[in-house]
Amino acid sequence: MTLAPSVLAADFGRLEAHAREAIDAGADWLHIDVMDGHFVPNISFGVPVMRGLRALADETDTPFDVHLMIEEPDRYLEDFAEAGASVITVHQEACPHLHRTVQAIHALGCRAGVAVNPATPLVMLEDVLGDLDLVLVMSVNPGFGGQSFIPGSTDKVRRLRQMTSGAQTAGAGRPLIEVDGGVSPDNARALLDAGADVFVAGSAVFRGDVAENVAAFRRAEMRTA
User: Fold this and answer.
1) At what angle do helices 47-60 and 15-25 cross, to 10 degrees?
2) What's the pLDDT tens digit per position in 24-50?
3) CB atoms within 10 A of CB 175
4) Is 180 a residue of the active site?
5) pTM over 0.85
6) Please, is 167 exposed, middle or buried when counting C-beta atoms within 10 Å of its C-beta (0-12, 13-18, 19+)?
7) CA distance 28 to 215
8) How many CA atoms lie within 13 A of 9 on its CB side?
9) Catalytic entry in 33, 36, 131, 133
10) First to last CA, the chain
């Protein structure tokens, strides 16, 4: 399990310190949710927040997992790459020329991910799977943190794992499967068994005792199905 806490749920009054708590507790990545108020009905933050966390990420060797919930993401890829993104994920629904966008991400030296909304069928990714490093399954409708997990998402992850089992990326192996939305220690084991690799969690990490919340995910990882 790669745990990627979403800083959208962190305390912005002490953002770096709160993010450090998660990293010190054993989180693997920092997930950066970028929203523009157009593609999704909310506005979050952008490159300046990433730059503010850059020293922490560099010091701890923590990858930035950037999730662009925005229209026309191609216009901003270079900015996020320069701010330190390791993975840049765009939405299938926002990219009319998805293959070109994925190529542009790779050309910037980043791993390329594509996200699909709950109502988007996985067949929409068939022709680009071999070019992807990561596929993000949205398990809530994107735009707001703290939403409830859509139960059918677990089966969607399972079907995606079957689809990707034979796909070889431009890097090594099959694309990683990431899940974002309502992820918690209560459903983590089922998602892991279904084939998920990367777990995005906002409130489930940053609300309350961060170290204990991360430990709860690790206990879920060790549980027998």
Assistant:
1) 40
2) 999 999 999 999 999 999 999 999 999
3) 27
4) yes
5) yes
6) middle
7) 13
8) 24
9) 33
10) 14
